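Troubleshooting: if your tokenizer reports a length mismatch, compare your output against this known-good record of 389 residues.
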Amino acid sequence: MYRRIMLAGLAGGGLVATALLQAAAALADAPGANSADAFTIGSNTFDPYYINSSGAEVQGWAPLTQISVASPLWELAEPVDNQYLDVSSANAVDIGTINVNDYVANVLGMTDTSLTVAAVTPASGDTSAQAAELPAVGTVYDVFNLGHGVANVYTATAGAHGTVTDTLVTPLGGIDLSPLVSGIDAAVPLQPGDAFTGLVGHTSAGNSEAFAIGNITFDPFTIGSSGTEVPGFATVALSVTTPPVLLVGGGSAGNPASATAYVLATQSFDVYNGTSPSAVDVGTITTAEDVTNLLGMTNTELVVRGTTAASGDTGAQAAELPAVGTVYDVFNLGHGVANVYTATAGAHGTVTDTLVSPLGGIDLSPLVSGIDAAVPLQPGDAFTALVGH
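Known-good structure output:
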């Protein structure tokens, strides 16, 4: 289940400027804009351009290349940092330029483009009021073109936590969906601990954010600037943004259990061999971390990268630490309900899955026994129906 970030060996072609144009096509025309690609969100008009390899300014959208392809279901493009937008105020005055990181996804032929403001440059001669109209660094705009003049337009304002707006734009007018997505803030990092809230309280070992999977307690910590342990989870920066539907952080290039993998997010845990106050701290583990927010519900996956037995452990206690490569995945569905998946490394086929609820657990292991996240994917599995033809 862990997500591999594919950096090479991709299909040819790319998501070109037209894909980005499609995502903005459902928005209203931009009065007074400088090009046909300009569009309006809120009171600002954005006119895109990029810097090509020779350093020249080119009107429009920078071409993008896929990093994940499962046609015709979806294509995901690699973000670029050479995309710029001239910004005009409501009265058509050029107030400056923003540099954005853009993320593009095409799902079943519908394009979603997300823009995260990376830098802001006020126009020469701007008044302070005009400069203040420019978006703040970290602000996120997302447009999902549903076709036929309908688009979902999402905005998360940086520095104003909770300031999220969402409007369904249609030929008949806009529908305010902000109350439905107010808790999905793409301008702040992901919180991996949100996946485990339904499991906290099932153990008496460790600190307040400790949680239990099976009979093992995991107590998260980070290392502070002074070199001491700080209880709790570290936040995870976003790597894919298509809000309000999907936010993704973490991931790795290569098998995250491998020491040579490039891992984007890690998390350490003290491990206890039980859930009672008398449970013994048997050591620590370091994990690679994937965090996904799907429609406001958080999924966190942990892949064990390293283990350190506690000083004084017996052989039996050291053996209670999870094996390197073991995968834990928790999907918090809300209201105390969570799906808890485990794939044990070195024991092919040892997969468990439990739907945890306030009324007890439901064993779903038979339904997912063939989905083993602790082993590599097998590309040949796609072609079994074609073999022999």
